[in-house]
Amino acid sequence: MKKMLLLMVLLSVGVYFLLSKNFPNVEINRYDSVETAKEQKAIENGFIPKNIPASAYDIVETHEENAQSVLGKFSYKEGDEASFLSGLTVSGEVYEGEGFLFKINKEKNMVDFRSKPSK
Fold first, then answer.
1. How many CA atoms lie within 13 A of 61 on its CB side?
2. 18 domain residue, yes or no
3. How do residues 43-96 score in pLDDT, each as one tens digit?
4. Span 24-35, mean pLDDT?
5. What does the alpha-carbon distance between residue 58 and residue 52 come to, in Å, rounded to a whole number?
6. Residue (of 79, 83, 77) closest to 110 by Cα position
7. Longest Cα–Cα distance in the chain
8. Cα(79)–Cα(89) distance, rounded to whole angstroms?
9. CA distances from 83 to 15, 38, 39, 78 (A)
10. What b/e readout covers 22-57, taking b as 16+ CB neighbours within 10 angstroms?
11. Is the pLDDT of residue 19 over 60?
12. Residue at 79 is within a domain
């Protein structure tokens, strides 16, 4: 039993150091609302799209230190869907706007987003 516990601790420590070495500049942030994201300057810093619906909640974003690559998701209230979509252009299942690409699940009122790759 002690050997198993020691092995698990060593494995956990090893995984931690491996991930921190290979991904040292990645940050994950969570915001409960748009107001919280604004207070933390996540929108101002370009980690969250400027056109995020006012009702957005459960906002999560992951970005590199240099903010060249941003991934995230959020949920929103159905009443904001039409105004959010009106500011986007659509190509198949992908929406685009404000320097971001969006994949929208209208049934669950959820959005996955990522920064638009630079060419």
1. 30
2. no
3. 999 999 999 999 999 999 988 776 678 999 999 999 999 999 999 999 999 999
4. 88
5. 12
6. 77
7. 60
8. 19
9. 44, 20, 23, 10
10. eeeeeeebebeebeebeeeebbeebbbbebbbebbe
11. no
12. yes
Report the alpha-carbon distance of residue 72 to residue 17 in Å, rounded: 24
Average pLDDT, the chain: 87
Q: How many domains does the chain have?
A: 1
* Buried b or exposed e, range 3-20, using 16+ CB within 10 angstroms: eeeeeeeeeeeeeeeeee
By CB atoms closer than 10 A (0-12, 13-18, 19+), residue 81 is middle
Q: Work out the percent of the chain whose per-residue pLDDT is above 90.
A: 64
Model-level pTM? Answer: 0.77
Structure tokens at 81: 């869907």
Range of the structural domain that residue 103 is part of = 25-115
